[in-house]
Amino acid sequence: MPKCCRVLVLISGNGSNLQAIIDSCDDNLQAEVVGVISNKPDAYGLVRAHHSEIDTSCVIAHQGESRAEYDVRLKAAIDKYQPDLIVLAGFMRILTDEFVQQFEGRMINIHPSLLPKYTGLHTHQRAIDAGDSEHGASVHFVTPELDAGPVILQAKVPIYPEDDAIILAERVNEQEHAIYPLVVKWFSQERLKMRDGVAYLDNNPLDIMGYAVD
């Protein structure tokens, strides 16, 4: 029987992508969510984890603490779970380069845009303001440069003239819940790797916009 991949999820809020991954693990994914860490004690994702009997931890920033000092405490919390894969699911902190490098190739993130478009915040409104006809989400490996790691998989959605940022976000979120568990599955099956800054699936290098599903 193949080894079960130990997945640790980092959150700051609602945790809907966390829930999608938990539900997929229940469907015989070769992975188990062994822990959830939040930087916010009131994050609803912690409630989701408790309902699924998953261990949780909070690493709350101290007043006056530097980003590097916080990341030392975060790494200590992570190490307790001995994860094979770290999943950032709405974790609203910018991580230091030193921290990211320690988990290179083992940490993934989902970003609400079709990277390399619209790194950072307010992606839905930015796509509308630019007059784009489509928008979406990207799962990527995490590297020191923000939202710039190699893309693994994207999902596209249309933008309609009557859309506002809230409606568009809901459409994108639905696709996020489909593609994030799939990428976790690929990693757990040892099909997905990152080598020399490039994402590989089944030993084939992926395009700049990830695996093509069109």
Descriptive report:
This protein has helices spanning 16-26, 44-51, 67-79, 97-102, 123-129, 165-188; strands at residues 5-11, 31-38, 56-58, 85-88, 107-111, 134-141, 151-158, 192-195, 198-201, 204-205. The protein is of the alpha/beta class. The chain has one domain: Formyl transferase, N-terminal domain (Rossmann fold). The strands form two sheets. It has a seven-stranded mixed sheet with strand order 3-2-1-4-5-6-7, covered by helices on one side. Strands 8-9-10 form a three-stranded antiparallel sheet. Helix 1 (16-26) runs parallel beside helix 6. The longest helix has 24 residues, at 165-188. The relative contact order is 0.16. The mean pLDDT is 95.
Question: Which descriptors apply to this entry?
Answer:
single chain, 214 residues, alpha/beta, Rossmann fold, 7-stranded mixed sheet, 25% strand, globular
In brief, what are we looking at here?
The protein has helices at residues 16-26, 44-51, 67-79, 97-102, 123-129, 165-188, and strands at 5-11, 31-38, 56-58, 85-88, 107-111, 134-141, 151-158, 192-195, 198-201, 204-205. The chain has 214 residues and is an alpha/beta fold. The protein has one domain (5-205): 3-Layer(aba) Sandwich (Rossmann fold).
